[in-house]
Every structure is written in C-alpha cells, then in structure tokens.
Structure prediction request, 282 residues.
Amino acid sequence: MRTVRTVRTVRTVRTVRTGQAYRTCPDRLTSAPRNNAASTSTPGTRPVYYEPGQTPHGLPHDPFKSCVVPRPIGWISTIDRQGRHNLAPFSQFQNVTFDPPIVMFSANQNSAGLRKDTVRNAEDSGEFVWNMATWSQREAVNVTAMELPPGDDEFERAGLVKLPSHRVKPPRVAGSPIQFECVYLNTLRFPGTPPMGAADVVFGRVVGIHIDDAALTAEGLVDVLGIRPIARMGYFDYTVVESLFRMVIPGDNRALLAGLEGSAAKAQDARSAPDAQGPRTG
Prediction:
C-alpha cells in the first residue's frame, strides 16, 4: 500500500459575499455566481458545480467521496449460518447515539450487484463485531476488502488471529485495540443505480466493549494518538490520526457538555442538579 501523509497546509478563507460561492485554491481564492453551469474547465480555474446523475463534474475522478472526509472504518466481523467467519471493512461507519450505544455501517452492493456477505450474516445471526482499524493493521484491512467467495475466511487470508467474544458469536480481531460486540437491530435499504449503487444501512446495539490496556493513557482516556486509527478519504486514499485539539462549548450547561463527552451518568446528574439549566434546542 502506498503511504499518503497528511498535508498540514493552512489556508486563509475570506468572508463570503452575498450571492457568491467561494472555494480556496493553492494560490488564490476564486469566485463565481451560484448559478454557474457544470464545470468542464481545468480543475482550479473556477468553482465546480454539478448535479449528480444529471450534469458532469468535469473532473478526472468523481469527487463525491472526497468531500466527506475523514470517514471512520467499520471493520466488521460476522458469522454465517454454517458457522463460517467473515471480516470486511466499510468506510461508511458511525456511532448513532451513546445511551444506549448504537452504531451503524452502510454497505453498497458488491460488483455483481448482490448484497454483501456481512449484511446477510448480521441479519441472519443477529450479531456482529466492530474492530478498530489502525495504522499497524492497515495492510490487513486492505486485504479483507477483497471480494472473496462466500465462506472464504478473510481472517485467514489476511493472517489475522481470532479472539473469542463474550456476548456474541463472531470473533474479534487480535491486535485491534478496541472492539464493540453488537446485536443486530435493523436494516434500512436505499435504492441506487445498479450494480453497486443500492445500499444497506445496518444498525446494531453495542452490548460489550473491549479496550486494550495499552490503548489507555495514565489518566484513563483512550490514547487516540497512540492507537493511530486510520480512516478513509476519497479515491484510493486513507489518513491516520496524528494530531488532535480540544474545544469546550462556552457556558456552564453541564448536561450539554456531558452529552458531548458521551457520559449518560453525568448527563443525568447534571439535569437533576438544583442549578440545572432548562432544555435547549440546537
């Protein structure tokens, strides 16, 4: 796999004027009316506007996935009706809520226009496991993205060791610093253009969480910089977490801050406190 380093270039973004659309370019800021036609000019000469499926974007590669970045990787392990193991990465993965903890992953159809084995296995067995994908296991993640015949074991193909789960049957990936054991909730299916456009969005409730001791700081926080999770970008590119910064929302709404932290207990304590602020929208 080619290593792509994160570019840490700081660009100045000017105030956007009414009726104008702006984007930053390497050496300048360009503008164009909002109703500009689909661009077929050289990239970087003016803003691109196109209507997916209706007008061309005029670029050498479709930019859509590169506009939604970075995307956490759902490295999902499942088991089929015959007891065979499956492991595959999905670049549309996210947590939905924290109380109770619920996660989702979205799977397009395979290149033959068929539903992915992971989706069928999760629905049939009612279980799946999310394994955090990190820099140290990036090559294995890439191998498990291959389309293999049903029943072929991606763990074995990638040379990965299996760890038993506590609450569910699908195994965990040894070496992955964090894993979620999940029970299947439901699937939302979205139609799309064949063969691969349709998508199955699978939701699951997290019933067991494993965190390796080495993945924690001395203060008991998840050591994200030490773990170095990887994430999908666009095209064939990935990124790796190598820096972070912290911001706390102004004010003293403790329930709001507890929600951002993801602590249900702190949120309940804050709401029951005598000086708790009233509900807000936003």
About this structure: Residues 1-41 have pLDDT under 50 and may be disordered. The CA atoms of residues 178 and 211 lie 5 Å apart. Residues 71-240 form a domain with the Pnp Oxidase; Chain A fold (CATH 2.30.110.10).
